[in-house]
Structure formats: structure tokens, C-alpha cells
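Here is one chain, start to finish.
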Amino acid sequence: MAKKRVDKGVPGMDLLVCRNPMAAKRYDVEERLEAGMVLYGTEVKSLRARRASLEGAYCRIDDDELFLYSMHIAPYEQGGHAGHETQRRRKLLVHRREIEKLRGRLTARGYALVPLQVYFKNGVAKVQLGLGRGKKKGDDRDAIRRQEDLKEARAAMQRRKG
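Its structure:
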């Protein structure tokens, strides 16, 4: 029997830990990238308990390596004295050619690399990154207008059926 897909866009996902809904509102995501994370044992346990948040998190390239900043992973209660820092910078595992490609795209004005979601895939913690352009005020108005038009069209279809 085939596994159920938990979320669109990531086949083989075992457990969705957390999402960053503000990323879709603030950025037009043009490209998506999957990266592994270097974590401590207590961080993995806490992620499996879905005790994490991507609010305010961002990615940056430092010394030819990709890092995730400001991601909050709650402390693991049974961790004892061997706990972890909740908002430390975490190294992301991607190929060097992908980092170079991202570096070229990030130098363009208005582009940012934002974490979209954290999940487990085949027992390994992964983060989905989005390369996106910051939205402008007018872009938000267009999106709201499109949503309202869609809502009106659905209501008209319901009136027609009933």
C-alpha cells in the first residue's frame, strides 16, 4: 500500500514538523530546494514531537556554507543536562554547486532565501528552502482581489446548483 502524501510538493514525507506561512505572504517563491540539517540528538527528539517554529527564521551563506538562523526548537524535557540552545545557527547540508548557484541568485536585488517547512523524510530531518523575491504592497492587493473573485465565482456556482 502506498504512503499517503502529507503535503503537496514533497513526495516521501513522513512527518511535517512546522511551516512558515508568512513566507508565502511576503515572498514570491520562484525556486524550491531541499536541504538536510546538522542537529543534536535532543533537537531531533524535539522535532519529532513537533515542537519547533520557523517564525522569523532566515538562511544565509557564510564562508561557502549555508546556515539557518533564528529557527526555534524547544528544549527536550527528558534531555537532562545535555540540552541544546533553542535558537542557535544550524548548518544546512547542500551540494557546493547548489550553494554557488544560490550565491549568484542572492546577489540580485530583492531575492532572499527563506525556510518554508521542516519535515522528516525517510527518517531524516529536512528543511525546504524557497528562493523568492519580496512582494510589494500592490502585489498583496492583487492577491486579495484574486481571492475575492474566486470566492464570488464559487458562491455563484453554489447558487446555480441549489
